[in-house]
Amino acid sequence: MARNVVLSVNGRNGLDKSTLRQQPEQNWDLVRAASTTIHGINGTDAPEAVPGEPAGLLSIELLESESRPEGFVVKTLAQVPENRIPQLTEILPHRDVVLQAIGGDGEPGRKGGDGTPGRDGMPGTNATKAQDATNGTAGGTGGRAGAGSNGADGGKGGMINICVDEDNTHLLLATTWDISGGKGGGAGEHGIPGPGGKGGEGGRSFTWEEQNGYQYRCTENCAGRTTQPASTVKALSGRTDPRMALVNAIGSQVAAGSSLQNAVVRLAQYRANTPRDTAGLCECSGGNGHCTGCAALPVYQIKERVPGQEGEEGRRGDVPTNRLFSGADGRPGEANIIVTSKTGGMPSPKKETRLEIDPSERLQPINTHESQAFVPQVLPGQIITLTGSIKVLIREPDMPILGGEPYRESTLIKLKAIMPGLNRRLDYFGYQKSIDIEYPLELREIDYLDSVAQGSEHRITMKVHNKSNKPFGGEAESPRLLEVKLWIPSETGSLLLPNDKWGPETAIKPGAMEGNASVKLTQVSKISHLAKDHTYTEIRIGLHITPPGPVPSNRKKTPNGDAVQTFDLRIQVSSAHVYNDEAAILVVTNARTPSDQFEAIGNFIRNDLNLKMDVWNISLYGGLVRQTQDNEEDEEIPNDILNEYRGKTIIFLGNQFEHFGVKAQTILDLCESRVIANECFAGTSCLLLGSTAEKQQRETWLKDAVFPITHKVSGLKRMVAESSTFDNTATFITSICEQKTAGTSVPRAYILENNPKWYHGSARIAVKLRAKQTRRHLRSKLPQERFWVCPILPRIEGSRPHNGYVAIWHGLPARGNIFAAESKPLVRERRKQTRLHNFDSFNIISALSPLLRIQLLCSSDRNQEDSEESLKDKDEGTPSVDSDDPASYSQETLNGVQYSLEEDVCNEIKNYLTEVPLINNIEIGAKTSGIQFRVHFRCLETIMQQVQACEGTPVRALEVLKTAIAATNPQKKRQVARECTIPFGQRREQLKSYLMKRVETLLRDKGYGPDRLKAFRASIMHSRLSSAQRNTARRIEARNVEFTGVYTEEYRKGRKTTLDLVPKTVICTAAEWDSRYQEIEKAQHKLKRSVTRAFEKRARMSTLKLDSSKLAGSSKTKPVDKAGPSSSSKR
Known about the structure:
Blueprint: E1 5-8, H1 14-17, H2 28-34, E2 57-64, E3 72-80, E4 88-91, E5 97-100, E6 159-165, E7 175-178, E8 206-217, E9 233-234, H3 242-255, H4 260-272, E10 295-305, E11 334-340, E12 353-357, E13 363-365, E14 372-375, E15 392-394, E16 408-419, E17 424-425, E18 431-438, E19 441-447, E20 451-453, E21 457-466, E22 482-487, E23 493-496, E24 502-503, E25 505-508, E26 518-527, E27 535-545, E28 565-574, E29 585-589, H5 595-608, E30 613-617, H6 618-621, E31 649-653, E32 657-659, E33 662-665, H7 673-681, E34 685-689, H8 695-706, H9 716-719, E35 725-726, H10 729-742, E36 749-753, H11 763-781, E37 787-792, E38 795-797, E39 800-802, E40 805-810, E41 818-821, H12 838-847, H13 850-875, H14 891-912, H15 929-936, H16 938-949, H17 955-967, H18 973-981, H19 987-1005, H20 1010-1018, H21 1027-1030, H22 1032-1044, H23 1048-1053, E42 1055-1057, H24 1058-1061, E43 1066-1067, H25 1070-1101
Parallel strand pairs: 1-5, 2-6, 5-7, 6-11, 20-28, 29-30, 29-31, 31-34, 34-41, 35-36, 37-43
Antiparallel strand pairs: 2-3, 3-4, 8-9, 8-10, 12-14, 12-16, 13-15, 16-17, 16-18, 19-21, 21-26, 22-25, 22-27, 23-24, 23-26, 27-28, 32-33, 36-40, 37-40, 38-39, 41-42
Helix pairs in contact: 3-4, 7-8, 12-14, 13-14, 13-16, 14-17, 14-22, 16-17
């Protein structure tokens, strides 16, 4: 930046006028030497500070430079003081002139002198044996601190007069002035007071030693001494020792100044007058004290004279208490602008002022006259309006636009004014406005299918909307072109080109568009037959617009390389459903099923279980209902896809997905509970794997599947057939048992008539009692079944009263073949194929029917025996004959099958023995024992029939039977006690006896002798005394927890069955009955609307046709669907 030219008449600073620039330092050694007192000398006070000088006067005139077009000249008219500024000063282009008339700054306040320190006190004299020590004297007081001075005031600002002609007012833009007053000086500070002197040291102490008596010790000369002298030293016994008195007297004479001769005389007297013990013996020889033969040992005492005390430290010098202040700033001066005007007032510059757009990151000026506007001279009080416009270039974004949202960015558009003559930006002129930058076109309403079938064609629709009011494209002077480009990976599929061919890329050109109008576009894509099943592909859609500007001579423009708006459509590729009669499992997937999870499930079912599976993608077909085609009139074709897999296993994947425009959907929203109940009643097993739905929704769905009410209470009498109405509970229970035996039981309603007696009091009480009795009898006689018992209270129908009745809904059995399980993360091991977690694979095995699982165990044992015989024949030279498709299972898979069957039979027996009366009321050991056993133990009966039918004795199947027998033993201490106290009429003992007898009969038929039967009984793992072996169900659970690799709470809470929610027969009210019906009806209507919407969109967007000829039991020719091979084929 160019340096400015400064012209000043500033006042001088007070510090420059001060004669005392620096206060000399004091020499404390010289001061102390000259002082005659112990106290310090006071510091000197500081002098007053010098104020600043006021500024002078400066009058100038601004003139245009004749030699430099963008410079100007400053002419000095007057100045005080004189001769500081030249008469003419030329200011170069792009420089400013600064006029200064600033008052001088006041001198800062000065600092006071420091006080001298006080001298140290005199030390005291030391102590001697004859006199005490003296104290030290106090130190001297420090000198007082000198007072500082206040800061001086600043000088007053001066006067500046600027004269300019009205034609040169633009020169004021390059002129600035400063007429501020001088700054006041800062406050001074007081000096530092002198410190006090140290106190004198006290005299030192004196210590000496004096004799103070004797102590006596027995010697060989003691009276009566015949043995060695005692080693102890003792004083005379309680008597007064005259020798001590004499010694004390001699010491007193010596201290009093007696002569040496007197002391010797006294000592001789002491030796001559030594006392003797008249008893005759010394203490060491049995006497009463010491004798004259004892040795005297002198005793000394240490004496000390204390030291003197130190003198007090001298007091610190005083500090001035008056407060020091800063000097006041000088008052500002005066500046005057004198304009020579012919019209009066202060007009704007006569030359036109240029307006431009201030460049920014997004807005750039263009180098043409269209990017500028000019403001003429504006008279005082006048307002003018400029016509026309200022054009600016909007920069396009540097980064590619991704994510689907249209590009939009907010920025500020700012105007700047260029002063004529000086060609400088006018300060303090600014107009700004916030604007949103976006492209005129936008892609909207892109519609496509989330899941498409292999080999099928589907449509992608979208709209291009013109957001501006002006037409886009066409034959305008500067038209812009539009293209919508689409791209798909070639290995996945292709796009329909304008020439009716197929390719991986295409472009659609909508042409001209009117303002605020939209154009609908449609693109057809085709998925390859070879695309991998349940993988995801992306179709990219980009909106491309040519930049603005003139059209080339050939009127051909190509859109830029980067799209102004892009979308990545994530589409799932799925195989079309083709029914396979040999498939044992149907997997229901959706558009958001993870590819690795689907692949891991398929590998486990096909490779580990050696089963075939079909796949139904609910996002591909819109629901679980098969869409009826216009040309199909075969009424034998079932409309529900689940009906085709009755008696098999259905796995529902419970993750969330978007279903034809409805977000956050799960399979629970698209699967009707009544349909699930009917299929499970017919023997279908259902597994909801990895449900992400809310806990309340999941539990409500499972409860509705147990009791799928189809009639309201008000319509029961009309809808229930006469054959389903009974007079008593016993007849009703017999009818249910017959239906279970024949396999014709279905979920439906029954009625028990109410026959009130006089002792009931009223028909209302009789109905309630009848309902409670019915519930008790059903729990006792049919423990494996679940019923909803509802007392319908009496009411008046027309003119005749109604006695009421008991409504019963036969729900799903305790083993309802349906449960929900959490999904664990996949197991990813290095250099190994991704597989399911053991918990997920165990749940899939548990969802298989008991018949399929026991057949798997039996076939694995048979194949193992065949392989052993084959190896034996091979060793003997006999050629081996391999089967066409031998089933081989890993030990982990066989363990999972065995463990799941053991858990099922334990739960079946546990549920049968949960609520039992004191005396058993079920006859299993009678002639009809087989029928009763099949009614209550469907799973266990299936296992025993398969073991009996297979060749040999499968080892793992026998382990299941051992577990069943162990579960019939007492499982808790109270059950052991009951068995001992009431050894008759127990249901547990009856079941154990029947099961043991039947299993032993089965083993005898297979060649077991007495020894092998005895070994079989001994191998049953149960103990009445050991808590670890008593509870079979708990032991099985602990082993399964270890097998699945989860914690106990994860195993229990991660598998939610209907038995956990509805464990047994319950009583409900008529309001609860109707509420359940309305809830199911509401979900059914919602599902119908969802399926209808999905069918309409699929018919509009896809060319996939259902292969309705390939159904279960169909004798029609089964053509291959053009969408690709079935997912049920083994890999």
